[in-house]
Amino acid sequence: MSYAGELSALITAIMWTGSALAFAAATTRVGSVYVNVVRLLAAVILLFVTIVVGNIRDDISIMQTGYLVVSGLVGFVFGDTFLFKSFEYNSARIGMLIMSVAPAVAALLAFLFLGETLTSMGIIGMAVTLTGIMLVILERKESSTHHLPVSMAGVFYAFLGALGQAGGLVLAKLAFVIGPMNGFIATFIRAFAATLVLIPLNYFTRRLRRPAAVFSNNPKALAFTLLGAFLGPYLGVTFSLIAISMTNVAIAATIMSIVPILMLPTVWILFRERLSWQAVVGACVAVAGVGILFLR
Questions:
Q1: What is the Cα–Cα distance from 71 to 181, expressed in whole angstroms?
Q2: Tens of pLDDT along 151-163?
Q3: Are 187 and 64 in contact (CB under 8 A)?
Q4: CB-CB contact of 147 with 275 (8 Å)
Q5: 3-state secondary structure string, 254-289?
Q6: Exposure class string for 58-85: b at 16+ Cβ within 10 A, else e
Q7: pLDDT tens per residue across span 43-98
Q8: Which residue ranges make up each domain of the chain?
């Protein structure tokens, strides 16, 4: 299929939209640290069961495993940790705005380390898509009644999050360049490596205490976290690896970044949230940009 990579990236964005809503619902109940750790642990278990039950076997070299391990640490541990850290200083809207530079960072890293180049249509498609995304993000109003100045520390942490996300994709692509791999196995290696670091890191810093008790007291939070883990680290990340293995990292990253666009009809249907003309125009622009990426 000519557009298998682009379609996989689009499926990733759809899955991540659902996981974002689920994780948001869980985070408001138990906090980001518990959700971040349990989502990865649940994904590791789901991936392991899938590999065993499906009798999935893959001959992965030591070098490919090494790239995937580092990719998991850079993407899940470094990138996600700093993204969550940025939310302590600025709103999620500001964090999402800074994270929208991730495709551009991915394009630069892919050019430097993979030799990937973009056609003029590819560059135009990326620019149009990211413009639409920024229009939507900038339209979103702060939920609080008071407006605090934008913290440069929060901006810096969000940029590190974007760098981690882009770096994780490029490192994973390096593993695929060496040879073909099964997406579930590749995702398992990345998630397992990240879990091995995140659990002791949060435990010894006393940010993770009695998770079983926390979730037993709030079963809805556990249900939302498990749903988010299924849609995000399990299916979403697997499709993201399939996407970067079949198309340019920058193109895949751009399509995967349309989550804010996909959330618009979701919040309109589920929460009856009114959409402004700027949000609608931004969504149309982003969709047009994605169309250009498919037709490049």
A1: 15
A2: 888 889 989 999 9
A3: no
A4: no
A5: HHHCCHHHHHHHHHHHHHCCCCCHHHHHHHHHHHHH
A6: eebeeebbebbbbbbbbbbbbbbbbbbb
A7: 999 999 999 999 998 889 999 999 999 999 999 999 988 887 887 787 666 777 78
A8: 4-141+149-295
